[in-house]
Amino acid sequence: MAILVTGGAGYIGSHTCVELLDAGYEVIVVDNLSNSKEESLKRVREITGKPVKFYKADLLDRQAVNEIFKNEPIEAVMHFAGLKAVAESVSMPLRYYHNNITGTLTLLYVMQLHNVKKIVFSSSATVYGNPHTVPITEDFPLSAVNPYGQSKLIIERILSDLYNSEPGWNIAILRYFNPTGAHPSGRIGEDPNRIPNNLFPYITQVAVGKLKVLNVYGSDYDTPDGTGIRDYIHVVDLAAGHIKALQKLNENPGIVVYNLGTGRGYSVLEVVNTFSKVTGINIPFRFAERRPGDIATSFADPSKAKNELGWTAKYGLDEMCADAWRWQQNNPDGYK
Ligand code: NAD
Ligand code: UD1
Predict the structure, then answer these.
(1) Are 296 and 229 in contact (CB under 8 A)?
(2) Can you give the pLDDT at residue 336?
C-alpha cells in the first residue's frame, strides 16, 4: 500500500517524502510543478536510496487524478498541493480559490470514488487570524484576512462537512506555524521562485549575497524589542509530525486538528542575531513599515499534538539557521 503525496515536489512535501520513505512507506507524488522542480524528488531518492513514483499532473484535472488512483494501491493521502503566497492571493483571489479549493474538491471526489478515506491536510496558523492571546490552542476562534487564509478555512470546513456526512473518513488537519530550515544533508530545502516573502529565505539570500539588505517590517509592535514574534518550526520536525498524524488515522479518530509548532516564539531581531551567531555572517537590515496583515505575536500551544500524537519538535532555532544556511550555501540558485 502506498501514500499519495500531493505537492510532494514542494518544500514541505519533499521533506515529508523523506520521512515517509525512511519510515518504510511506499510514496507516490503528484505535483504540477507550478512552484517546484522535479529535481527535488531526485534528491529525495538520493537521500533515502528508495524509489518515489512521480506523476506530473494538476489536481484540477480530475481524469488525471482518477488515473493515479486506478493505477496505484493508495491507502492514504497527504495533501500539500496548493498556492501559498499571501500577497499574490490578494491580487489573484480567483486563481487561489480555484487552485486550492477546486483542487481539493477534485481530490476528495476521486478519493471517495476509490474508497480512500484517510487524508492529512496542510492547514496554517493563519486560520487563527489575530489571536486574542498566546499561546494559541486549537479551539481558538478562526478567521482569515486574505484569500489564502480563507482558502485554508474553507477547506477545513469542507473536510468537516464531509466527515459529518459520510462514515469512514479519517482526517487530520495540521495547522503549521512557521516552517523553516532544511534537511540536514543540505540537498533539499525551500526554493522560492521570486524574491522571498518569508523571513528565513530572505535572510539566507541576503547571507549568500543575492539580496542586499533585510527589511524588518515594523519596529513598534507590542513585543519586547518591537519586532514581530513567530513560532518557527524546523521542516524536518514538521515532516515527522505528518508521520505521527498518519499513524493516528489508523486508530479511526474521525476528524482531528493539531497545531504543529514548538511553543516558543522568537522576534525578527532574535532570528537575525541567532542566524549571525550560528553562521558567522552579519545580516544588514533596516527597519521598514509594518507589512499589511501582519500581527505582533503568534506561537502555538503544541500540547495536543504531544499528548495525542506523541510528537514534539526536537530542533531549535540554532539548527533551523544552520540547516537553512547549509541548503542556501550549497544551492545558491536553488534546484536550478
Ligand atoms: P510549495 O509551494 O513548496 O509546495 C506546494 C506544491 O504544490 C508545489 O510543488 C506546487 O507545484 C504544487 N501544486 C500547487 N498547486 C497544485 C495543483 N493544482 N496540482 C498539483 N500540484 C500543485 O509550498 P510548501 O511550503 O511546501 O507548502 C505546502 C502546503 O503547506 C501548502 O498547502 C501550504 O499552503 C501549506 N502551508 C505552508 C506554510 C509555509 O510556510 N511553507 C505554512 C502553513 C501552511
Ligand atoms: C506568512 C503569511 C502566513 C503564512 C506563513 C507561512 C503573511 C501576512 N502571512 O506568515 O499567512 O501562513 O507566512 O507561509 O504573509 N518579516 C520581516 N521581513 C521580511 C519578511 C518577514 O521583517 O522580509 C517579518 C514579518 O513581519 C513577521 C516575521 O518576519 O513578523 C515572519 O514573517 P514570515 O516569514 O513572512 O511569516 P508570517 O508573516 O508569520
Answers:
(1) yes
(2) 87
